[in-house]
């Protein structure tokens, strides 16, 4: 919708919907769908952001709460101001850039993060953050005025590279920030709150970073897939069904440590042999039903851990992930039963304690449809897929409906200097974000316009 004379807010959704649909439906004479975001401009800002924390081998180490992070944040805030956004940061260090809407409605929020893992790439988080800013620039150029106020967000310390505080900013927004998180110190003895203060935040006021349910109409995050599904399928846009839930257990197999030379094979209580069976049982039970669920035993601690001693104790985790919480639970129960059987066979006791269960965060079906329609208008094919990686959107889902747009990652590689998505793939994602925001602006809170 283009800006009228400013008095049309009350005229209602019908007009704004029709306007938006008409604007989106416009095609060039060649029948190529119109583009709003600018590929070259977006790519240039991605390259520039990549200078902050740049590594000689490529990629960046722009870990949250570091000098490079601070410099990157300053750059991004500058871009937001250039795009006409009113910029502020909250006590958790989240950055918000606001663009006014024509109606008194909750905000439409979109963005991502700019911090990286150590020796990470230039695309994880950056694509969604800079893509969101380019969407605002395109809205300005198209002279579009939305009904909802829009806010671009850059969440603080998503990766949790320091202080074991991943999804830091969005956790605070969801009211989940751990008590006394500001007192945490890293290996060098530096306090989290000292960094937070340099970012304009303050851990003692972190509760004020909580975003009240109802104040956000919805959140959309553009992100690289970080897996190889889209590339293999040759599909440019992924519509995320949800962010998988994660259950983790810590298990201990207890046998009897004894001399490896004098203990006959039929008298052993070998904790490692039992654990080996257990690892395979995890894989078998996860594979025993159709679906994309995954299960992993990621490490093992073997005691006493000597060449000439039968292992007496092994500690190992069992991690399960899926979009369906019941499926995770069901498979987990089957695995525990298998462990009992293996324990009897091996005369080893296998005990597991549940450590964590992060609930799956399902995206809004309405947002998924909006993303698909937006991509269709832009001439881009879509496929639905789950996100096996965690994202800030999973925290936002606790207080607002969310949607996520994925673009392909070359070779399915992420958290690596080799992480790459092409200028075109990145711009495709931002274009779909642009059109999705306009669609949601038309359809969300549509009844308010008729009052
Ligand atoms: Zn990310």
How do the strands and helices of this protein lay out in sequence?
Layout: H1 13-25, H2 39-49, H3 67-82, E1 86-89, E2 95-99, E3 107-113, H4 126-141, E4 150-155, H5 168-173, H6 192-198, E5 216-224, H7 229-233, E6 237-243, E7 245-254, E8 258-259, H8 271-287, E9 294-296, E10 301-303, E11 309-310, E12 313-322, H9 325-346, E13 349-358, E14 361-362, H10 365-377, E15 382-387, H11 393-396, E16 402-407, H12 423-443
Parallel strand pairs: 3-4, 3-5, 5-16, 6-15
Antiparallel strand pairs: 1-2, 2-4, 6-14, 6-16, 7-12, 7-13, 8-11, 9-12, 10-12
The protein binds zinc ion.
Task: Please describe what this structure looks like.
The protein is α+β, with helices and mostly antiparallel strands and 451 residues long. 33% of the residues lie in helices and 20% in strands. The protein contains twelve helices and 16 strands. The strands form three sheets. Strands 1, 2, 3, 4, 5, 6, 14, 15 and 16 form a nine-stranded mixed β-sheet that branches. Strands 7, 9, 10, 12 and 13 form a five-stranded antiparallel β-sheet that branches. Strands 8-11 form a two-stranded antiparallel ribbon. Helix 2 packs across helix 4, helix 8 runs antiparallel to helix 9 and helix 10 crosses helix 12. It is elongated, with a radius of gyration of 25 Å. The structure holds zinc ion (ZN). Zinc ion binds next to loops. The site of zinc ion has 5 residues, from loops.
């Amino acid at each position: 919708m283009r800006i009228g004379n400013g008095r049309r807010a009350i005229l209602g959704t019908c007009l704004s919907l029709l306007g938006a649909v008409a604007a989106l439906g416009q095609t060039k004479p060649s029948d190529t769908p119109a583009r709003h975001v600018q590929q070259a401009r977006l790519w240039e800002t991605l390259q520039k952001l990549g200078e902050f924390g740049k590594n000689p081998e490529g990629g960046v180490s722009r870990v949250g709460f570091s000098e490079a992070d601070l410099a990157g944040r300053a750059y991004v805030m500058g871009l937001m101001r250039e795009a006409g956004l009113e910029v502020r940061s909250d006590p958790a260090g989240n950055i918000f850039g606001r663009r006014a809407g024509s109606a008194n409605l909750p905000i439409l929020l979109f963005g991502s993060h700019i911090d990286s893992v150590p020796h990470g790439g230039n695309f994880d988080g950056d694509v969604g953050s800079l893509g969101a800013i380019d969407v605002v620039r395109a809205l300005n150029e198209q002279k579009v005025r939305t009904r909802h106020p829009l806010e671009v967000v850059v969440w603080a310390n998503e990766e949790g590279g320091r202080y074991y505080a991943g999804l830091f900013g969005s956790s605070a927004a969801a009211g989940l920030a751990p008590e006394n998180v500001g007192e945490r110190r890293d290996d060098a003895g530096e306090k989290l709150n000292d960094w937070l203060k340099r970012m304009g935040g303050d851990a003692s006021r972190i509760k004020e970073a909580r975003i009240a349910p109802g104040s956000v109409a919805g959140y959309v995050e553009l992100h690289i897939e970080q897996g190889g599904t889209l590339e293999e399928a040759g599909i440019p846009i992924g519509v995320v069904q949800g962010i998988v839930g994660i259950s983790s257990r810590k298990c201990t197999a207890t046998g009897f440590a004894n001399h490896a030379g004098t203990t006959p094979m039929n008298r052993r209580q070998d904790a490692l042999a039992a654990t080996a069976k257990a690892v395979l049982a995890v894989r078998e039970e996860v594979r025993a039903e159709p679906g994309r669920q995954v299960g992993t035993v990621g490490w093992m601690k073997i005691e006493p851990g000597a060449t000439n001693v039968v292992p007496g104790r092994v500690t190992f985790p069992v991690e399960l992930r899926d979009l369906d919480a019941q499926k995770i639970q069901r498979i987990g129960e089957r695995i525990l039963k298998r462990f009992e059987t293996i324990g009897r066979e091996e005369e080893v006791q296998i005990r597991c304690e549940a450590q964590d269960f992060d609930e799956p965060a399902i995206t809004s079906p309405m947002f998924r449809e909006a993303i698909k329609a937006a991509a269709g208008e832009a001439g881009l094919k879509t496929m639905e897929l789950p996100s096996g990686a965690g994202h800030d959107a999973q925290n936002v889902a606790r207080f607002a409906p969310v949607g996520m747009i994925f673009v392909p990652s070359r070779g399915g590689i992420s958290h690596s200097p080799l992480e790459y998505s092409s200028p075109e793939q990145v711009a495709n994602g931002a274009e779909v974000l642009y059109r999705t925001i306009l669609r949601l602006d038309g359809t969300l809170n549509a009844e308010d316009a008729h009052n």
